[in-house]
Design a protein that fits this description.
heterodimer; A: mainly beta; 6-stranded mixed sheet; 5-stranded antiparallel sheet; 11 strands; about 0% helix; globular; B: mainly beta; 7-stranded mixed sheet; 4-stranded antiparallel sheet
């Protein structure tokens, strides 16, 4: 079993829909949780960064961490075609960053 | 805006040949990472440098891969000899420190081994 599980998709939704992307993990020592966005043939870029449990909002994006369930989510409101990308979750403790496999998201105009 | 520079962007080589990738991190970033990303998978750490010292190379296939960061600035990743299974995207990233924090990635070097 991988330390971080993420559905690879693809997830295809119409423009304007609310998108929910999720990761589960097994290591209760993880404290820092990140979402990176990766466009095709590009390197990942940091989208959201949260510490411990709770919610964090940035524009159309909301990151949610539930440490009791070992579950993190990224919500995208009013999704746009430009949001089409692969979304990678990552988390760490002791300076080791563990990555999910990424979910490919397609927003249809 | 400061960026992580990588070259070449694309490399096609035949198996058993030698390949080298170069990375120039954001100025002032002490920590440099080389990742390998196979299509449809998350990045896999190959080696992490703190300044010029290797702090983690536990996943680096040392029989064929080598990495150096001689002056603690730019870095080179070498594969010799290349194998078919090495076909992947090689990503370089940098960060201010070694602790939890944002990693800044370059655009990657796409390797195809024939």
């Amino acid at each position: 079993q991988k330390e971080v599980e993420q559905d690879p998709g693809p997830l295809s939704v119409p423009e304007g829909a609310i998108v929910s992307l999720n990761c589960t993990y097994s290591n209760s020592a993880f404290q820092y949780f990140m979402w990176y966005r990766q466009y095709s043939r590009k390197g990942p870029e940091l989208l959201m960064y949260t510490y411990s449990s709770g919610n964090k909002e940035d524009g159309r994006f909301t990151a949610q961490v539930d440490k009791s369930s070992k579950y993190i989510s990224l919500f995208i409101r009013d999704s746009q075609p430009s949001d089409s990308a692969t979304y990678l979750c990552a988390m760490n403790s002791n300076y080791q960053l563990i990555w999910g496999a990424g979910t490919k998201l397609i927003i249809k105009p | 805006e400061a960026e992580v520079a990588q070259s070449p962007r694309y490399k096609i080589t035949e198996k058993s040949q030698a390949v080298a990738f170069w990375c120039d991190p954001i100025s002032g970033h002490a920590t440099l990472y080389w990742y390998r990303q196979i299509l449809g998978q998350g990045p896999e750490l190959l080696v992490q440098f703190q300044d010029e010292s290797v702090v983690d190379d536990s996943q680096l296939p040392k029989d064929r891969f080598s990495a150096e960061r001689l002056k603690g600035v730019d870095s080179t990743l070498k594969i010799q000899p290349a194998e078919l299974g090495d076909s992947a995207m090689y990503l370089c990233a940098s960060s201010l420190g070694a602790g939890p924090g944002e990693l800044f990635f370059g655009e990657g070097s796409r390797l195809t081994v024939l």
